[in-house]
TrEMBL record:
Residues 256-269 have a biased composition (Acidic residues). Residues 241-269 are annotated as: Disordered. This is Reduced meiotic recombination protein 1. Residues 245-255 have a biased composition (Basic and acidic residues). It comes from the Eukaryota. One of its GO terms (biological process) is reciprocal meiotic recombination. InterPro entries: UPF0646 (IPR018822). It holds the Pfam family DUF2420.
Amino acid sequence: MDRENEVQVSLVDEDEDLLEYDDSVGGNESERTGRGSVNDAELGLVLDDRARAAAEMLLKKTPPCIYVSYEDDSFLLFDCGDDGEASMPIICDDNVELHASCNGLFTAVRKFLEKYYGSLPFLSKELLFDIPCLDITLCEDNAYNNQITFEDITTIFRILKERSEANSEANVPAHMEIEISVRPRFVSRYNALVELTQSTASLGNIRPFTNDKSHPVVLDDSTTVGLGGKPVVMNIDEEDVEEANGEHNQSHHEGAEDDSDELLEIVDE
């Protein structure tokens, strides 16, 4: 068996469930440093130099082609040098986010989408990266995002893809594909429900937001539906959009760590 395709796993921490993979060929310390016996200071300098060189090589390495779809549009996650897809917008200008934590990647993708579509569709929304070929969904607010990189995901895909090709399996995807969607952030909806408890609202007030001619608009759960039974359709002009975008850009921070995302306290009188 080819040792390059072996995946060795070990627990990251006794209190965690994430596993680590080892996709490199092993060797003893003296083989990796090219030295026999060295003291701690010398070993530290050697490892620092090698780590710096390895980091530079990673950044120069051409990233894999990863296709991204959101609504009816298609993008490339990184510039993979595919001339056939030169017309597709590229989300990340370089491949730094490939090697950084997934939190960094989500931040970069959010900035791109907000610039491409405007901020309003993503206000109080969590980004979801669905990867069908791996049957996994990465969530923007996942607590484990800071422990993994997207390179981990692409490495898992590469290893399994190579084995599928070796086994002559059918319908092996040539590239990874990501389907982006959004959903209300838990903290946003939770806080909205807490605010309901501070009014005269009941379970009958809980309803989804609507804004089209066939359904009356519900601005929040505590309002009554429609005026005189007639649908109300919101009309947001460009000035309102620009003002909302400006306010959001000033207050938005990475992930769920923004001050505005603090959980509200329930007051049970």
